[in-house]
Amino acid sequence: MEKEKEGVLVKQPSEVFMNVVMKSFNTGNIELKPTEKQKELIQGYFIAVDKTLATSEEKRISKNAMNSDHSYDNTLPYIWNNVNLKQLALDVMHYSKMGLDVQQKNMIHIIPYKNNRTGKYDINLMEGYNGIKFKAERYALNKPKNIVIELVYRTDEFRLIKKDTKHPYEGYEFQITQPFDRGEVVGGFGYYEFDDPSKNRVVFMTIKDILKRKPEKASAEFWGGTKTEWKGNKKTEVQTDGWYEEMCLKTLKRFVYSEANIPLDPTRIDESYEYMKKREMEIARCETEAEIQQNANKEAIDVEVTEKQTVHEIPQNVYKDTISGEMANVDSGEVIKEPVQQEKTQPKQAEMDLGPNW
Prior knowledge:
Order of helices and strands: EEHHHEEHEEEEEHHEEHHEEEH
Radius of gyration: 23 Å
């Protein structure tokens, strides 16, 4: 819908976004039209990105106001005019063709990165573990009819049954003996069940294997450890359990749905899949460059939480600690932003009451 401003018709962001994405479907002189389902997915991406920008802009203004040193202020508003729309349109076009639905929980996380070279925000469409699952099943060489994923605790009884002369196919036995006090996590397993039972397979990870995949800079808010809290008008270091078990389970799910365990069918690999892999490499490179620039110039990478969650759920996307300013990737628990200098005073009482911005 166009809106009249001072006698000039101005296109609304939703219309501009849709038009740019639609043009991305065209190849050369060939005009391709998306399906109705793809159009629905594209509209979902606009709604999700628009909500992210609105929330991020509120936090940008609030954060700037809280900075005692305004040289740390972010002066670039989170608005559509400041988004790298061409790149976002290409991403959305390919992701919608793959069927990735941003409105499904933990399918795609939207994270805006400030690109100091272009003076715009690059929107990173980061896969959640459900996105990885969706992609693995879509492109699988031999798709399982069912996959079981479980963490194993100290008091559980787990027995792996290998295929041999006495057992026609691979399987397992798993009993939870003390459901209300299972002890610490000792590992986990994934069970692939096929129509042909002889193809059934079990993979597993020890706790050592899981912790090997723990990020080098892991946020205590997620993986547990030492974090900063206000006590008696002073910052103090306290121990927290974080979301340790949830992070172990996410790590296990990524392993179970990895290409190493669910091989891809080369005949199913399409342009959109190849594009996604290329974008993942580009984003990783950009993040590395941004980190180098941050360390050299002491400029923080701007990553904002896209949506508040209740304290009963582990949050999606990115978590920011209201005291230290530390930010972490929710899927991996990796710290993606070191704290920047803020006011050296106790936060407002309202912020203390709210706790972490879930």
